[in-house]
Amino acid sequence: MSTELNKPRGILKNKGNVPSTSTERQTPDPREVAVKHAHIIHSRRQVEDQIADSIIELSKFPATRDSSYNAPNPAPADAETFKNQVRLYQPSDYDDLIEERNANGLCGYTLCPNPRSRVTGGGTFKILNYGRKDFNIVPSRELEKWCSQVCAKRAMYVKVQLNETAAWERAGVASIHIELYEETRSTASDAITQLQKDMENMKIEALEKSAQNAQSLALERGDAIENGKASKRSMKLTIREKPVKTPTAPSLDLDDQAHLVMEGYKTTFDPKSEAANQNEQKTSARDETRE
Predict the structure, then answer these.
(1) Taking a C-beta distance cutoff of 8 angstroms, is the pair 149, 181 a contact?
(2) Which of 69, 132, 58, 48 is nearest to 98 (CA)?
(3) What is the mean pLDDT of residues 150-162?
(4) What is the pLDDT of residues 44-62, one digit of tens each?
(5) What is the structure's pLDDT at 223?
(6) Are 177 and 87 in contact, with CB atoms under 8 Å apart?
(7) Residue 11 pLDDT > 60, yes or no?
(8) Distance between CA atoms of 277 and 164, rounded to whole angstroms?
(9) Is the dihedral of CA 42, 46, 52, 56 positive or negative?
(10) pTM exceeds cut of 0.70
(11) Torsions phi, psi of 257, nearest 5?
């Protein structure tokens, strides 16, 4: 009995006595994890294959080759297809599309049906706009990607709208839209036109307000109003010259006591007190002589 009392007891509970709970974390099935990752990789591969097929398709654009359509005014179906497919591109995918079009002899801008230009003469670089403010030295390879510099601007305007994020991360985002160079310019021109109209309306409103103010002022003066305008009335004005007095020089007032005046103040002098002071001075001088 004494040995059982002296035997140390553990402070930890026996696991066999702990009741099992439903919230206990279970080890995930490795097969399910592998299948899930396989689906993710498969979906990413599908997006990449979709972009590759799109590059092949857009390398032969525009699909509608008609004289009424050109790069600044493409066919609506071609423009819509191009914007829907290029929205998931990365900048590197867009560069691949330009190279694929150049390999087919076409301009790098997808909606341009013209062939790409060829730089005459040898040399790796080409001088552009010599003697002008926009003088530049450009690699010949860059110039041969496009049919003109305007198409290069159109292509680069699309490229700067692309994102570096992976395509499968943006596949489900419906808010990604691509705008063309001409669409933005037309929108800007419409905004400028609307601004001009608003400014004209403001000028008209200012003129109307000025006319109303002039009419109100005429009513306050008592002018007659005819057909919404104040009638002119004649007034007799008499102009008179203001009389001017000829200035006169100040007179000098000679005074024998002028030396007593200092800054406008004249000192007073008492002859009796002055005589008394003189007598005192004489008396004091005699006393000093006797001593």
Answers:
(1) no
(2) 58
(3) 91
(4) 888 889 999 999 999 999 9
(5) 65
(6) yes
(7) no
(8) 114
(9) positive
(10) no
(11) -105, 25
